Every structure is written in structure tokens, then in C-alpha cells.
Amino acid sequence: MIQVQQVVRDYHTGETVVHALKGVSIDIADGEFTSIAGPSGSGKTTLLNLIGCIDSLDSGEILIGDQQVSTMDKKSKTEFRRNNLGFIFQTYNLIPVLSAYENVSFVLSILGVPEQEIKERTMRMLKEVGLEGMEHRRPGRLSGGQQQRIAIARALVKNPKIVLADEPTANLDSKTGEEILQLMQKMNEKYGTTFIFSTHDVMVMDYAKRLVELHDGQIISDERRQ
Amino acid sequence: MKFLFVLAFRNIWRYHRRTLLTASVIAMGLMMYFLVDSLLVGIDRESVCNLKRYETGSLQIMQKDYWEDRTFMPLDKAIPSVEPLLALVREAGYTATGRTQFAADMILYQQDFDEDGNLPVQVTAIDLSTHSEVFDLEETLIAGRLPEMGSHEMVIGSWFAEDLDADIGYVVTLITRGNGGFYEAMDMEISGIVRTPNPAVNRNGILVPIDTMSEYLALEGMATEITIALPDSANVELEEQKLQHLVAQWEVPLTVKSWDEVAYDHVAMIEMEKSSSSVILFLIFLIAAVGISNTMIMAINERIRELGMMRSMGMKDGNIQLLFIIEAGAIGLIGSIIGILIGSLANYFLVTYGIDFGFLMREMDLGYRIQNIFYGAWHPQGIIITGIMGVVLSVAAAYIPARRATIQDIPTCLRHQ
């Protein structure tokens, strides 16, 4: 369970203050497939970054499970992310000098998983995302959709509790975007991983089982779907 | 850990041109260090060798009082009855000869030198029967011959002869004070001219027979010093202690001094020149450090989003820093290998052919006891230091940029274009 309570986040640019989140509160249950939707500057990415422990809030609190992540120090946040969170980025953020296999397996390496287990889990995950036989290819030799599949495999290979995806289909054409969403949905159902993804694309919103809309740093609607 | 090494080496290859360029800067710096070190070691070795072989010997025995006033060369503080002492030293297995140094005024005459004149000189009176056992003089004669015992003949250095426009058979008068303070004038004929590998001898050397001087200056078997030659492999410090022990009970208080104590000015000057070379080397390394630091800053800026991703995945800051330090260390290693290889090649020529500084040594007294060609030397310790320094320097120069890689907050890294 993720509990976001009265979270405020301001950004200061010179003398200008941007109120990115103005007291946002939301609870997300385990295994939910939630979309945070809203126009640019509505605070979607800020909310994801705060839940993902890569940004700090100004007030309020965030609990993930029974852990108060908003008050954790830098080192604890790093450890928490390493053990519990997976990330998918709009621009994939793969390491260009590593193969598909290495891009996925390094997440397990930093967790200290034994070599043999790394191999088994990585290969299984690459197969799950449809990249079997492409494990030796580097990102530069793969399409955008295939690269995002690697990113999904990378996010899921360590069996995280939560996967945070910031505009995961924004760099893809609609067909590939749909394939990626279907894959995410499949993984959500198969592994019970909580997925939270931001978007401003209506097609993407349609895939969400829960749609939370943000506007000017505030939640304006929260709708659960079948 | 293995992942960090794989990633570091792939990144080095990914930016291979930049890697090579940075490694070249490091290689250049290290090669300069290598060559300067080789030259300094070579100069040092040869200079010391020439100093001992033509000027000071390895050890000298003097009266304690003479050592303290040696700059004035006081004859009244010379070792009395030197022969028994020489016999004692020789019996102990040492090769030794007696010498007497004194200051004099040299008078030049118009009939030989075109015009009358005089100049202050330092004269060394040598025992011709034993001198060649300690000093290599005979084979350095370029004109004439060595003086005969008891003669009024002398040998002078080649540059000194050139400066005076002197030749064999020319006569000069040496005026000095004898033992007891009386003035004495001695007419001496130039019988030989020597050109040694030691410029100090060539520039100032005046050698006269000790028995002639003993008579003129009322030395009565005295010598200001006993000079001892030791093999190159000898432990000078140990032999100095042994000799000190041997002469401890002599009738007058004696002291044994090693060549570096006698030629302390030469040693101090070499040390000073090494220090100034270190400043140049520091600047070379500074350039190499700026190069590697700049490369690391560029690498970090180019991969800032990649770093943001790795940090968001939970990679420790220490591992991110280690990644860049491995990269820098590897670039340093490549630079070191290139620097040592090219440096070794260049050093081969330096060791074999050397650099001719004869034009400089003739006109200027740099203090080195080398006449013209400065040779390098193979100095394994220097080569090892070169290699280690290349890696250490690179790692040190990368440390601050590597730390910077983890200071920026993750969302900013991920937004980086």
C-alpha cells in the first residue's frame, strides 16, 4: 500500500516559486495498475519522483508499506529503491555500451544476486518481454519498442513491489505504445506488481484500471475502472 | 564489481578517440618524466664517477683541524709524516695516495703568453708514484707527458691551457706561502696537458710533483690529504667507518670524509637542480591532470542521464564514483604503458648516444663533472614510479569529477538533454 498524504512540493527558480504539488493525498493499493494523468506541468512526474524516492517533498508524508519513505536519508532511499522499486523512463535510459542482457542483469548485480541466478532470471525476463534471441544486441540495434521492452524487463527483473513509469509510451508510435501497455498490463496481472504510470495520452489512460487526474498540482479526479 | 569493470572498459572503448587523446597527454607527461629522470640519474652517476676518478677519490683522510679550515688550505694543518699513515692504510687493503692542495698566484710571462699577467690558482701536488693508482690521469694526456718526480714541471687542464693560450714548454711562476708562512716562488714548466671527462679538472687543474713542493714549501713529508679509491661496488659509508676506526689512534686527530662530504657543493647543486626539475615535472603532471580531469567531466556530462538511471535503480553513489575512477585509472594505465614504451625507445637513444652539451659545459660551469655528452641511464625504479604515477595521478584527477557525478539530484540528471 502506498499512502501519499498532503504532499507539497515547490520548486524555486530564482525568485520564482513553482508549486508543483499542492497538498496531494492518494492511497494506492498493492497490485494496482494506476495512471496519473494530466497536462504538462500538472505535477505527474513530481508525484512519481516522490513516490520513487528520487525527490524530496516540502511537507506531507509518503508511506510505502510500513515505511515512512519521505523522511528517509539519501542512503536509505537508495537502498529502498534498490530493493523495492523499478523504473521505466520515457527515453528508456538504457546503457548504450551494454547488450540487452547486460542492461537487464546489472540491476541484479547491484543487488548481489549470484551469477547463475542472474542468468536465469534475466533470460526468463527477456523471454517474457519478447526479446528472446536478442539478448546480445545493444540498444542501438533495437527499435524504440524493443528498447522499452528491455526497460520493462530491467524494471521487473528484481521482482519489485512497485514499478514507476514516467510517460512510458511517449516516444513510441501508437501501435508499439499499445503493445508496451499490454505488456505492462500482463506483467501486472502475472506478478501482482503495482504499476503507476504517468501520461497525457488518452489511449494510455484507457488501459489504466485506476485513473488519477492531476491539474496544477492538485488531484481533480480519481476513477477506478473495470 | 565485475559489472563496474565491464561498464568502465566498454565506456573507454566507446569514447576511444578521447581515451587515446587523454592517454597521449598522460603518456607525454610520463615520457618526459621518464627521460628527465633517466638523464638526471645518468648525469648523477657519471658526474659522481668523474668526480671520484679525477678529483676527490672515494674517501679522504685529513687532519681534523684542516677539515674545519679546508677552504683556506692551511699547510700547517697538513698531516705530518704521511708515509707511515699511507703504509697503514695500504696494509689495510686500500689503494691510497697523498696529495697536498694549496692556493698560489700564477705569474705569466710575455715571452710565452704574449703579455705579462697573473691569476690566482689552486694547485694540487701529487705523488707521481702512487697517483695513478687512485686517479685516472695518464690516459687523459692530450699533449706532453706527466711531470717527473722532483722536477719543476706541471700538468694543466686542457680548457685552462686554451684560456691561457698555453702550450708544452711554457714557463710560469707559482708564488705561495710555505709551511710557516714564508713566501716562495717556483718556476714551473708545463710538461703536459690533460683533457679529462671532468670539466673541473680541465678548467682549473694544475698538478705538480709533491716532492718538489715538499722541498719548496717546507712540508717535510706532510700532505694535506690522503685520498683513497674504492671499487664502484664498495659501501663508501661502511669503508669510511672502518677507516675512521683504523686511524683513530694516530698521533694527530684525523678525520675520514667521503667524496660527497668533500664535494658537498657539488652534491648540493645536484640536489637543487633535481628540485628545479621536479618543478618542471610538477607542471607536466599538472597538464596531464587537467587533461584527465577534463575528460572525466566531459564523460560525466555526456552520461548524466545514464547515471541518473543507475542511481534511481539503487546503485550506490560510491559505486558510481568507483566507475569513473576505474575508467580514469584505466586511461592512466594506457597512458603509462604508452609513455613507458615510447619513453624506453627514446631512452635507448639517450643511453646509447646521449646529448652533447659540450658547447654549454665549456662556457658555463654547471657544476656537473661531465665534459660534454650527457647520457641517460636505465633506472628501473624510475620506470616503476612512472607507471604507478600515471595511474595514481589519473585516479586522483578523476576523484573530484567523480564525486560531482553523484551530487546533482536524480530528477535533474534524468531531465538532462
Distinctive features:
heterodimer; A: 226 residues; alpha/beta; Rossmann fold; 4-stranded antiparallel beta sheet; 7 helices; 29% strand; globular; B: 417 residues; alpha+beta; 2 domains; 6-stranded mixed barrel; two-stranded antiparallel sheet; 18% strand; elongated
CATH topology of chain A: Rossmann fold
Oligomer: heterodimer
Number of strands of chain A: 10
Fraction of residues of chain A in helices? 25-40%
Q: Order of strands side by side in the largest beta sheet of chain B?
A: 2-3-8-5-7-6
Structural category of chain A is alpha/beta
Would you identify the CATH architecture of chain A? 3-Layer(aba) Sandwich
Q: What count of helical segments of chain B does DSSP give? A: 17
Give a written overview of the molecule.
The complex is a heterodimer of chains A (226) and B (417). Chain A is of the alpha/beta class and 226 residues long. Chain A has helices spanning 44-51, 74-84, 100-109, 115-128, 144-156, 174-191, 202-207; strands spanning 2-13, 16-28, 33-37, 59-64, 67-68, 85-88, 162-166, 194-199, 210-215, 218-224. Chain A has one domain (2-224): P-loop containing nucleotide triphosphate hydrolases (Rossmann fold, 3-Layer(aba) Sandwich). In chain A, 35% of the residues lie in helices and 29% in strands. Chain A has a six-stranded mixed β-sheet, sandwiched between helices. Chain A has a four-stranded antiparallel β-sheet with strand order 2-1-4-5, with helices on one face. The longest helix of chain A is centred in the last third of the chain and has 18 residues, at 174-191. Chain B is α+β, with helices and mostly antiparallel strands and 417 residues long. Helix content of chain B is 56%, strand content 18%. Chain B contains 17 helices and twelve strands. Chain B has helices spanning 2-14, 16-56, 64-68, 82-91, 110-113, 131-134, 158-164, 199-204, 210-216, 236-246, 259-262, 264-302, 304-312, 317-352, 358-363, 380-404, 410-415, and strands at residues 59-63, 95-108, 117-126, 141-144, 153-157, 171-177, 183-194, 206-209, 225-229, 254-258, 355-356, 373-374. In chain B, the strands form two sheets. Chain B has a six-stranded mixed barrel with strand order 2-3-8-5-7-6. In chain B, a hairpin with a 5-residue loop joins strand 6 (171-177) and strand 7 (183-194). Chain B is elongated. Chains A and B meet through helix 2 and helix 3 of A and helix 1, helix 13 and helix 17 of B.
